[in-house]
Sequence to fold (177 residues):
Amino acid sequence: MKPLLKTYKNTFIMRKIIALVLFGLFTLASFAQGDKLREEKVKYIKKKLALTVDEEKKFMPLYEQYLDSTANLKKDFKDDVDLAEVDLTFMNDEDCEKLINEVIKFKEKELELIKKYTTEFKKVLPIKKVAMIFKAEADFKKDLIKQLRKEKFKERKEKLKERKEKQKDRKKEEDTE
Fold:
C-alpha cells in the first residue's frame, strides 16, 4: 500500500510542476505576443505619420514613453480592479459606487497622460502630425479588430469544413456496413 501512496504523491507533485511550467510558458507567450503587437503598432504609427529622420529621432522615444506609461497605468488598474472578473450580480450599491469611482479615477489618469504627452508631441512634431497620431491609433485598432474577425471567421469556416468531412466519413462507414 505504501508504494501506491508514494506513487500517488509523486504523480500529484509532477502534475503541479507541469501545471506551473505550462503556466509560465503561456505567460511568456502572452508577453511575447504583446511585444509583437506593440512593435506592429509602432511601425504602423511611424508609417502613417511619415516622419522625417529628425522627427523620428525626437518623437519615437517620447512615443515609447507614452506607450510605457499607458501600459503601466492599465496594468495597475487591472491589478486593482479587473473589470472582466467583476460580478455585479450580487454587488451592493456601496461597492458599485466604489467601482464606478475607480473607473472614473483611471479614466482621469489616462486623460492626464494623453494631455501630458500631447504637449510633448507638439514640441517635436507639427500640429497636423500630432493630430494624426490619434487618427493612426484609432485606425490601427480598427484594422486589428478587422484582422481578428477575419481570422476568427476563417477558423469557423475550417471547423465547419472538418465537421462536414467527418459527417461524410461516418456516412461512408454506415453505407459500407
Remarks:
- The radius of gyration is 25 Å.
- The helical segments are 2-49, 53-80, 93-124, 127-176.
- Residues 127-176 form the longest helix (50 residues).
- Residues 53-124 form one domain.
